Amino acid sequence: MMIRRVVITRHGGPEVLQVVQEPVPEPAPGSVRVRVLVTGVSFADILMRHGLYPGTPPLPFAPGYDIVGVVDKLGPGVAGLQPGQRVAALTVYGGYAEVICLPADRLIPVPEGVDPAEAVSLVLNYVTAYQMLHRVARVKAGDRVLIHGAAGGAGTALLQLGRLAGLTMYGTASAAKHPLVAALGGIPIDYRREDFVARVRSLSGDGVDAVFDPIGGANFWRSYRTLRPGGRLVAYGMSAALEQGRKKLAAGALGYGLLGLCMLLPGRKAGFYDITGVYKDQPGWFREDLTSLFGLLAEKQIQPVIAERLPLAEAARAQELVSRAAVSGKVVLVCSQ
């Protein structure tokens, strides 16, 4: 029996993604074979395609940062999981596949009855949002925050979780996405037509308590300027390193340089959040936080925004939508039924 994967064959545009057929893998001792139902499409996947994401394996490899699937076969020595059970995992890469083998201790049970596409949105986007809010920025009710890319996968997660936390939220987005930002509890700011630094200052008075910035480049410095004394800049991406599908390495270098400067300045705090680093250093946090988020999803206190559900074979189109910020919310690839 053969299964399909979508692999990055070389660095470049969406055309370098190729569907390949391979034999069904067998789980090693301590591992589990999972039939992947859905995998998310993230900006990190696109950075991997361009060779700009650290820690990726040699080419060719399948991207795919997060999955929800069904336990298909247990490897020797695995206990506590059952064939047919729904599970989720932060894969970092490898998710663009019909089947994947993963260590059993990386799998987290998914509640019965939840939409797999909504569930997979929690694995990367909502855990990222939750940890930045509560484990990094340590927000409290009444705090003011600025969310860049507020209509994206992580942005909509920040808005929903921020509303539950009782925050006042400002969200940058293009004008067409303002109704969504407002519906999720944010005050929209048109980053294309407004100076968001001046706008935040006019709305908040003395600035915000935290900024969540996945953009990088010069945006880090501008975000830092919106902070009130004691505030914190949480950087968690570098989308400025790509512009219209082209590498902008100078923007990436500038972003890291400015972030380093912000970290040295007194009166406010700055740092870079990396979910894989946190996952490695504090593995218990990921399981704890994702399990709590699954509870919120099952109780319908959160509802991820699903922009598109596309078949696995349309991975190139899915990445193109994400890279152009052409949709709101999460783009999901349906790998199997």
Ends apart, CA distance between termini: 17 Å
SS strand fraction: 25-35%
Overall, the morphology is globular
The helix tally amounts to 10
- Total strands: the figure is 17
C-alpha-based Rg, rounded: 20 Å
- Tell me the structural class: alpha/beta
Low-confidence stretches: none
Order of helices and strands: EEEHEEEEHEHEHEHEHEEEHEHHEHE
Largest sheet: 7 strands, mixed
Average predicted confidence as pLDDT: 95
Helical percentage:
25-40%
Quick rundown:
Strands 3, 4, 5, 6, 7, 16 and 17 form a seven-stranded mixed beta sheet that branches. Strands 10-9-8-11-12-15 form a six-stranded parallel beta sheet, with helices on both faces. With 337 residues, it is of the alpha/beta class.
Question: What features would you describe in this structure?
Answer:
By secondary structure, this protein is an alpha/beta fold. Strands 3, 4, 5, 6, 7, 16 and 17 form a seven-stranded mixed beta sheet that branches. Helix 2 packs across helix 9 and helix 6 packs parallel to helix 7. The mean pLDDT is 95.
Comma- or semicolon-separated keywords:
337 residues, alpha/beta, seven-stranded mixed β-sheet, six-stranded parallel β-sheet, 10 helices, 17 strands, 28% strand, globular
Which secondary structure elements does this structure contain, and how are they paired or packed?
Elements lengths: L1 E7 L8 E7 L7 E11 L1 H7 L16 E9 L11 E5 L8 E5 L4 E2 L6 H21 L7 E4 L5 H12 L3 E6 L4 H6 L2 E5 L5 H9 L3 E6 L5 H7 L1 E9 L6 E2 L2 E2 L1 H16 L4 E4 L2 H7 L1 H16 L7 E6 L3 H9 L6 E5 L3
Parallel strand pairs: 8-9, 8-11, 9-10, 11-12, 12-15, 16-17
Antiparallel strand pairs: 1-2, 3-4, 3-6, 3-17, 4-5, 5-7, 13-14
Helix pairs in contact: 2-3, 2-9, 6-7, 8-9
